[in-house]
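To whoever is on call:

I kicked off a structure prediction for a single chain this morning and the downstream step that reads the tokens threw a length-mismatch warning. I double-checked the sequence; it's 358 residues and nothing unusual in it as far as I can see. Pasting both halves so you can look.
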Amino acid sequence: MAVPTVMRAWRTDGAGHRGLRLEEVPVPAPGPRDVLVRVRACGVCRTDLHVADGDLPPHRSPVVPGHEVVGDVVAAGEAVTALAVGDRVGIAWLRETCGSCRWCRRGEENLCRASRYTGWDEDGGYAEYAVVPAAYAYHLPRGVPDVQLAPLLCAGIIGYRALRRAQVPPGGRLGIYGFGASAHLTAQVALAQGVEVHVLTRELPARRLALELGAASAGAAYDAPPEPLDSAIVFAPAGELVPVALEALDQGGTLAVAGIHLSDIPGLDYQRHLFRERTLTSVTSNTRADGEELLALAGRIGLRATVTPYPFERAGQALRDLSQGTVTGAAVLTLDDPGTGPGGPSSVLPLHGSADSG
């Protein structure tokens, strides 16, 4: 397939998601260690909303958001050996680290101070083509719908890391605060591991989805769970939920905060929120190993995403719906098959096969 010289791309300058603009821009050229990817689908992540709204300080302006990209390699730099034209790949949030600092050397590249990110430092997947360093692209299986794979590339990976950081004991009780794209995937992973899941979220459709997926209970965000929790994860970008979740923990419990952006946390009372060896921890990006483990696990357990597809031309609508809390599960931009489109019913698509198949 001949690669055009011009493509359509959505760009933002961080002045608000309503300022997202669809423009014609040059197709990016891959460097020696990069691949050029024809985008087939791109998940719509809350981090994209934070970039568009300026909640995250601009690293590049204007920038093309999007870091849950599924597509096909159409060109590769001369130093690329592990990928070839025609390979199906995923592009995620983490796109580059130094490889030599103490964090990288000990397997914690997510903490590399020189790390760079797709859709923030470099243009992302709200476009017809995207470039990524080959070493940071994920091999993806054939035979699985693009819209099903896209949410795994950030929502799935970050949720998986958050679950690990929450240190749920075997057979333990996990509270999940907020139930969007990442949380509904994380709940399935936890349930597959034999964890008892309790969901606390403001949206009634999200509570219904939680119960359909097998949660033991689903209540309002500020409700107390039916029993003390061994672990909890706050996915909602609401700092006021941190003391609520801490108070819901049993002694020795751990709370992981999964968002890249969080509103201010109210003052904590030591006795109510932290005493009895409760732990409060954060989640920062992910390592490539996290992504590889999640993709392999997804195939083994039949992880499935509840997806609402949006045609590429409706990216602004997808971000508005996300900001208003009207998306159940994950929103995904599609460039080939618009599916049901915005406002249509969500589709629940099963994922079969392992990440290294096909």
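Update from on-call: the warning came from a stale cache, not from the record. Cleared it. Sanity check on the structure: The chain has a mean pLDDT of 92.
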